Amino acid sequence: AFYIVETGNFDIEVNGNKVASRGAGAAFGELALLYNCPRAATVIAATDAVVWGLDRQTFRYMIASTREDQLAAIIDTLRQVKLLSSLSDEQLNKIADAVQEMSFEQGDKIINKG
């Protein structure tokens, strides 16, 4: 599971040696969300503590469902672009997978002449 520290302090140990400490706002166990691998360290509560936990299966489900929603919205937008109107659903899906959202502030130059 992945944990986010609300309150308290934790010691991080590797091979029985303290290598770090973490407090409120810190997170640990992130590798468990991304990979099915053994823990690289042991985390021990150094004080009374409260953490928020998220298991791997729930995290992966949330990411997948969020990505599906994003892809659907991107495809809907791509269908409105005249240049892309003749593309197949498969082609639009490939483009939707490849696009990246970019944000700009007022006055930012997106393309420079030349």
Spell the H/E element sequence: EEEEHEEHH
- What's the helical proportion of residues? 25-40%
- Rounded radius of gyration (Å): 22 Å
Outline type: elongated
Order of strands across the main sheet: 4-1-6
Please count the helical segments: 3
Unreliable sequence segments: none
Tally of strands: 6
Taken as a percent bin, the fraction of beta residues is 15-25%
Note the topology.
Elements: E1 2-7, E2 10-14, E3 17-22, E4 27-28, H1 30-34, E5 42-45, E6 50-54, H2 56-79, H3 89-98
Antiparallel strand pairs: 1-4, 1-6, 2-3, 2-5
What does the model show?
The chain is built from three helices and six strands. With 114 residues, it is an alpha+beta fold. The longest helix has 24 residues, at 56-79. The protein is elongated.
